[in-house]
Structure formats: structure tokens, C-alpha cells
Amino acid sequence: MTQLILFNVFNGLIVGAFYALMALGLSLILNLSGVINFAHGGFLALGGYFAYTLIPFIGFWGALLVAPFLVALLGLLIERVLIRRIYGRDPLYGLLLTFGMAFIFEDGTRYVWGAQSLPYQIPAWLAMPLSTHFFFLTGYRLFMMAIVAIAVIGLFLILNRTRLGMRIRAGTLDLDIVSVLGVNVRLLRNLNFGLGIFLAGLAGVLAAGLLGLQPTIGDGLIMPSFVAIIVGGLGSLPGTLLGGLLIGVASGLTTVFFPSATEAVMYVMMALVLLLRPRGLLGEEGRLQ
Amino acid sequence: MSTDILSDRKKLAWNALIWLLLLTMPYWMPLTGGYTALASRVVVLALAAMSLNFLLGFTGVLSFGHAAYFGLGAYGVGMTLKYLVPSTGLGILVGVLIGTLAAAVIGALIVKLRGVYFAMVTIAFGQVFYFIAFRWNTVTGGDDGLSGWQRQPIDLGFTQIDILGNDKAFYYLVLFCFAISVAAMAAILQSPFGRTLVAIRENERRARFLGIPVERHIWLSFVISCLFVSLAGALYALMNNFTDPRALRWDQSGNFVIMAVLGGMRSFWGPLVGAAIFVVLQDYISSQTENWMSFIGLFFMLVVLFFPRGVLGMIKRKTAA
Predict the structure, then answer these.
(1) ipTM of the complex
(2) Among partner residues B64, B110, B136, which is closest to A95 by beta-carbon distance?
(3) Per-domain residue ranges of chain B
(4) Residue A178, min C-alpha distance to chain B (Å)
(5) Nearest C-alpha neighbor of B48 from the set B197, B239, B281, B215
(6) pTM of the full predicted structure?
(7) Are B56 and B122 in contact (CB under 8 A)?
(8) Separation CA B173–CA B150 (nearest Å)
């Protein structure tokens, strides 16, 4: 029993790490630009597929490094051409625009790489279980956790220690003032969008190694990411991280005791949070309006 | 609203034209290459989009999760007919009741949120019902959908209406429900309550300072909107004699929103126009190409970038200028 619980908690942590990675990217974009990026799952899938295509040429490690950057580059381009046009307009338009993009991404990946599931090669030594007793501790899972941890620490270092990060945080509070102070807000939003998409691309590469690839791989991750943002707290990135891990572990634990409610439990958590603390666990006051 | 631009007489003429077109649709639809079932689809989805627009266009609150209540209506009617009683009327009633109840509970949880956050929470809550329908195999049929039932003739006591065998009869049942719902929504919007909703849309803070209980109004508007959308869902399931989890998935919600926007969300009839265009276009594209998703996606983007006011919004602007 202990082993079963441990297994599912650990599984939940991994899933939660994915949620968090997705949700952090979404949150970055939402906080600074007020756009819910529905196409985030599509970017995630592209990350996986780019890596899949790159592996024969530059190997597993090269793909892991390069694919997220390629996706981020695409993100920068799309922000510049499309997303930029809907800033400052009713949030409705951002939703619809990215919604349409999500359709095109899904269809496009299916067109290029096919609808069937593709296997994703990971180095043999990473696929081995580390312990016979704790069979679920494969090297790849630990490795994934490590990469996610590095990415998250890196993100918070960028946000807290660099000029760009400082501007992003300031812009989240009051973009007009930041603009008046002479910061190029267009560029800032562009880079911020790219940063968010980078995280989605990275999540995609990692997810490919765990689950294999299919065009809808991002679909199952986008809703939990919304839940993570709401549970964790509106406007708070640490909150988003916490929310993602929390709902991941909660789903994992529910799998042990009440498997058919695995997906439902996070929505129950969201309902509770909205009931008891509408701004979310670590949310800032005044973000609700 | 439109009263200041169009005179009352002109408005009356427009209304008469719209109803005339709707009443005769099964007869002229085949001439344009359509079929009766397509006409039913247009009217059902128009009802859904107009219900959504009650909230979106006239209260100024963006719900991106209306498919959930649409789907609840669909499953409500399907499960009633399959497991409880073979009565179309009762099935519709149960479907609407379930959808409205769910909206009342969820609405109470989310009325404090605004704008983009409201949208996000409605999407997320919408997924709950998707998962229930998807997971609860034994009752809902899971991914394969709920089948093995069909709409029943309506017994009026003195006569029976065969809505199962006769496509046109079913169309007029749909139109009848549509007419009642639309009239009810129009009446609500004309009432002091409806005017208050528009006031909240225009300036929530001012409405609040005037002592209007904004949360309660938004909640009620949400529930009313979901009531009619679940009716649309029930009719949709009856139309297909089938429903599946896709009826309550988020892309269905997106379709409702794009219909409202495409037609013009600031006008009462806008979503009807939007639904007509969308349904016919989708029907055409999905019969022409396997990659219809890309075309629909592209269509969404084009509407956002070039037609944000919608068809009726643009016409109105031109006549005003």
C-alpha cells in the first residue's frame, strides 16, 4: 500500500510538474498581456514533434536543447504577426484568435507527422528503473523532474535577477507606467510571449519521452493548467507553480483511492478555492476585477 | 441597442422578414443545396448562440464554457428517453432542468470573477461535465456516446405529431421552441431587469454605485442564458437521436462564441446570422476536405482580425454613418 501511494504521489508530482510548466507559460502571457493562449497546447505538441524530427540529426540531447528554442522562435514570430493585434481589446478576441490557432496547429501536426502515435527514443540508460523495489523510479522520470526544476529555477532567476525580468514583473503591475518610463513595451511583450512559449516547447519535448507523440498531446494539459492558475492565485507565478504541483499530487492520490475521479478532483479543488478564497492561494488582491 | 438607429417601423419589417424566412426555411433550403436537417441545425445552434449572447452581448460577461450546459441538456433528454420514460416533452424538461441547476451552482461560484478570469473558469468548469460524460461509461456510453434511443412522437391528446419520421414536423417543433425562447429573452431584455444588465455591461462600477446588486444580476443572467442553451442542447440531441461527449467539449463553446461574434454580438439577431453562416460553412467545408479543422481555425482568425463587429454590427455602422 505504501508503495502504491508513493508511486502515485510521485506520478502526481511528475504530472504536476507538466501542469506547472504549461501553466507558468500561460500565466506569464496572461499577466503581462491579458491574453489566454489557447494555442499553448499546440505549441507544446510542436515542441515534441520538432524534437522528434531533430533527433536523427543531432541526437537526444541536442534535440532537448534546440527544439524548445525553435518553438519559442515561432512564438516570437506569431506574437509579432498575430497576437499583437489584439492587445487592449476585449479578452474575447484573444481567446477566439488563439482558439483558431489551436485548431490549425492540431490539424497541421496531424498533416505533417500523421495522426498515429509516434514513439520517442530516449537513451537506454535513462529508461531503466533505478531500483527493483521502487520500480517506478526510472531514470527518465527523475531526469524530467530535474529538468523541470532547472527550468523553473531559471525562470525565477530571469524574473528576479535580470533587467528583462524586472521589466516583466513591473509591466504585470502597471504596463502604462513601464511604458512611460521608456521601456519598449512592444518588445517586452514579444520577449515575454517567447519565454512562455519556450516553457511550453520544453514541456512538449519532455512529455514526448514519457508518453510518445500524438497531435492532441497538449489537449489534456491545457485545462489543468487553467485550473493550476486559478487554484494557485491570479497574477502570482509562485502560486501557479504551487497550484500545478498541488493538483498533480491530488490527482495522483485520488487515483489510489477513487480512480474514476482522477480528473474531477482538480475541479473540486478549484470550486473550493473559488468558494473560500476567490483570488487563489497566493493570489494578489484586486486582480479579480 | 438598435432602437436609436432603426426606427420602430423598420425594425418591425426586419422582424417580420426574419420570421418569414425561418417559417419557410424547410421549403427554400433545398433550393440552395441544403436539406431540412440542416435547417434544424441552423435554428438549434442559433438558439444556443443567442442564449450565449444574452450573457455575452447584453450583460458583457464572457462565458467560454456554455457547451457544458448545452451538453447537459443533451444528455438530460437522451438519458430520460433511454432510461426513464419515452416522452419527448418530459425529456426536454429534464434536460433543461439539469442544465439550469448546474448553471445555478457553478454561477454562484464564479460571479465574483471578471473578464478574462471569468472566461477561464467557465472553460475549466465546462470540462468537469466532459469528463463525467467521458468516464461514466456504463450510463453515458463514454466516448462512443449515448445511443439506443430516439425522439418520440408528441401526443397532444387530440392528435399526434410524428416528429421522428417527418423531418419538417421536427423542424417546426424546433422553431416553436426557438420562438418561445427568443420571445422570452427579448421580453426580459426590454424589462427593467434587462435594462439593468445592459447598464452593468456599459459601466459596472457606476451600476454598483447606484446600489444595483451586480453579482446577483450577473448570476441571474448566467442562469437564464444557460437555461436556454440547455434547451438548445436538448433539441440538438433529439435532432441526432444521439449525443456524445463532444457536445460538451470546449471547442463547442468556442463555436457558440464565434457564431455570436460573427453575426454581431451587440445586436439581438446577430447570433442567428452568425449561426447560419457558420453551420452552412462548416457543413460545406467538412464535406470538401479532411483538413476542415484548419479552415475553421483560419476562419476564427479572420473573423477576429477583420470582422470583430460581426455582420450586423458592420451593417449598422454603415447605416449610422
Answers:
(1) 0.87
(2) B64
(3) 35-248
(4) 22
(5) B239
(6) 0.90
(7) no
(8) 15
